[in-house]
Amino acid sequence: MTIGYESSTPASRSGGSADREWASRTGDATIPSSLRRARAGAASFFAKRTFDVILGSLGVLALAPLFLVIAMAVKLSSAGPVMFRQERVGKGGKLFVILKFRTMRANDDSDRTWSVGDDPRVTTVGRMLRRTSLDELPQLINVLRGHMSLVGPRPERPFFVSQFQDKIPYYLGRHRVLPGITGWAQVHGLRGDTSIQERVAYDNHYIDHRTIWLDLRILARTVSQVVSRSGR
Description:
Blueprint: H1 17-26, H2 33-36, H3 42-62, H4 64-77, E1 83-89, E2 95-101, H5 124-132, H6 139-145, E3 149-151, H7 158-167, E4 180-182, H8 196-209, H9 212-230
Parallel strand pairs: 3-4
Antiparallel strand pairs: 1-2
Helix pairs in contact: 3-6
């Protein structure tokens, strides 16, 4: 299953008034070509995928003991599974199942409820995992499966994508590449309950300027910020 995307996406669903203005001027109801273009060719895609697989594999091996400790803490903190699985929208609007360490008490409304900082559903262990972003570590498995990249726009739930694409210009432009565990928006503080408009701007900027060197910079800043948050 896919979420409406590019040429099959009417202007009213491709990013609000800016996209409708583009469509009225050009007769093209898709995302503007300047946003559709993903500069990376086949060689660049292969390089990024190789980069993801090598670092992702090393990460899983190196962090295996930490995975075990976190899994035990989550299991002891509250009833429910260790892993949280949820559908997200990936490249080209395709749906995939994202993996996380569970940070909330078991509930049935996470697909349609926007989590805020003081969410009462979050467990004590879950709050620590969220503050340090350690709950995201299982997404290394998503990277190895080819659903995600180490760096890219963060994937969103289908329910919210269907809302944001109607209101936020060029929102669907984020789906031109694989979603990431971290991204240009996140290292600029746009994580959690922050401006979606700003995230979209940073995500599309990253896509139009991405390189392996930029990915390395983003990963380095992510590690630095995680260590900083862990020390608080």
